[in-house]
Structures are given as C-alpha cells and as structure tokens.
UniProtKB/TrEMBL annotation:
Segments forming domain Transglutaminase-like: 86-140
Native organism taxonomy: Bacteria, Bacillati, Actinomycetota, Actinomycetes, Kitasatosporales
A Pfam family this chain is assigned to: Transglut_core
Domain of life: Bacteria
SUPFAM superfamilies listed in its UniProt record: Cysteine proteinases
Record-given protein name: Transglutaminase-like domain-containing protein
Length: 284
C-alpha cells in the first residue's frame, strides 16, 4: 500500500465527512487557505488575532485538533470560506498538513515537505513547509496552500511551486555543505539566532520524518540538543549527509529506522510561547 496514500496519526481527519469535498488539488488548497490564517498574517488581513489563539492553535499537532477548533468557532461546512476571526490560527505546517490530509482522504497520494522558501524574503531561504502530491502519471508536484490565493503576489503558480523557489531540506543541506550556499541565509529571517547549518540539519530530520509519515511540529526536536553550528559533531554531519544524499524512498525508510533519526514517543518541543517542554506523541 502506498505510504503516502494512507493517513498518518497526524493527518487522520477522524470522522470528517468527505462526501462534499472536491477531488482536485487546486480546489482543496483553496479550501485550506480559507479556513486557516497564519499567526503572522494578522496585519496582512487587517485583523488583530486573539492572543490566546496565537499561543495555542499552532500547538495542535493533529488534524483532528484543527478540525475540532474550526467546529467550535463556526458551524460552517469546511468548504465555505470563513472570516479571519473564525479560522484556525496556525503556521505553514498546518496549511500543508490539512491539505495533505484532504488529498489523502480523497484518493491522492500526498506528503509534507520541510525546507526553505525563497519567495517571502528576497535573498533569504525562509523556513517553510509545503505539500507534495503525486500526479496520475507518477510525477510529483509541490503546492503551497498558504499562498494558493489571497494576499500574496508571487511570480509562479502556487499549485506547481518550482523546485528552485521551494528548496527541500536535503537539497539545502547539500548546497551548504558543498559551499554553493551560505548557511546563514537559511532559517528564520527575523531571528538571527535561528539560522545556520544546524537549522538546516533540523529541517533535514523533519523532512525525513514527514516522508515516513511522522509530521511533527516545526519546533519539535529529538536526539542530541543542537542549537548552533558549534554543537554539530563529525557524526552529526556524516549522518545528515547520508540522509540528504538518499536517492529513493526505500533508502529513506531504511535510514529512518536508525534510532538516531527516528522520532521517539517523547520529544522536546521548543515552543515560542510556552517554553521548552517534553511532549508524548500519540501512538503511531
């Protein structure tokens, strides 16, 4: 069975009635865009988002939690556009996870990709997540539900994001390791302390986990605590090199069985609003 056709514990929509959902990725991306607002988009939409939602919504790891919160705020069907005050206040990962969930639910193999976007801040590779789905002919396509329509102006089709505009984490790592890219240009643009090779490594691990159906939060971590380039060891570099060089899904699954890479039941969450804390994930 196709791993990316099957729901994960994170993407599982529970009892969601999918009968009224469209099947094409573009329409599904529009639905997602119309029920989620990024917690950094308040000014862009001309609204002040409730402080509690900024702190709490994006800590929702599972689609069932996203759908529960949406249901509590409005009885509108998922296919109906919501005003910003009724939306889930999340991050790029939440747009990508909900779209992935709906694609899988309606029969399209899909998965999350963690990497860096070049279309938010000129000259910088911004930490970002998108959805990747498989076309009927087997080709893979990237779609960014966050910019699918609305208040963004990009020079490409958000339903077919070019691979040089969204750089998957493994490619970013290879570029940095080969000296073709400066690691200080990868991370979170507004925070100088959250960028560098160590951060690229973290996204490589998040991408590997997502490719194996474990779509954790962007600030979740496991294994040795590495929060700067100086903490990277020769073993860390070699192990990340191996992941970034993997050329097949079979190899990625083999690598993920390594306990140094696999997401354990208990992870550390470096939350922006709630501090560093340990979290036990739902059984997988």
């Amino acid at each position: 069975m196709d791993l990316h056709r099957r729901q994960s514990v994170f993407s599982d929509p529970g009892g969601l009635d999918i009968a009224g959902l469209p099947r094409d990725p573009g329409s599904l991306a529009r639905i997602v865009r119309d029920v989620i607002i990024h917690r950094g988009e308040g000014e862009r939409f001309g609204v002040t988002l409730p402080e509690a939602r900024l702190h709490e919504d994006a800590e929702s790891r599972y689609v069932t939690e996203i759908l529960r919160l949406l249901g509590e705020r409005s009885d509108r069907p998922l296919t109906e556009r919501r005003e910003p005050a009724e939306r889930f206040v999340g991050t790029c990962r939440d747009f990508s996870l909900l779209l992935c969930s709906l694609l899988r639910a309606t029969g399209t193999p899909a998965r999350l990709r963690c990497g860096f976007a070049t279309y938010f801040v000129e000259g910088f590779h911004e930490d970002h997540w998108v959805t990747e789905y498989r076309l009927p002919d087997g080709r893979l396509r990237l779609v960014d539900a966050q910019i699918a329509h609305g208040p963004y102006d990009v020079d490409f089709d958000p339903l077919d994001v070019p691979r040089d505009r969204f750089v998957v984490a493994g490619q970013a790592w290879r570029e940095c390791r080969a000296g073709r890219a400066d690691p200080s240009g990868f991370g979170v643009s507004r925070l100088e302390e959250i960028r560098g090779l160590w951060y690229v490594r973290g996204n490589v691990l998040h991408d590997l986990a997502a490719l194996n159906g474990v779509e954790v939060l962007p600030w979740d971590g496991w294994g040795p605590e590495i929060l700067d380039d100086a903490s990277l060891t020769a073993e860390d570099l070699a192990l990340t090199d191996a992941v970034a060089a993997a050329g097949s899904e079979e190899e990625l699954r083999r690598l993920y069985r390594d306990p140094r890479l696999r997401v354990p039941d208990e992870i550390v969450s470096y939350t922006a609003y709630q501090g560093v804390r340990k979290v036990t994930l739902r059984p997988r």
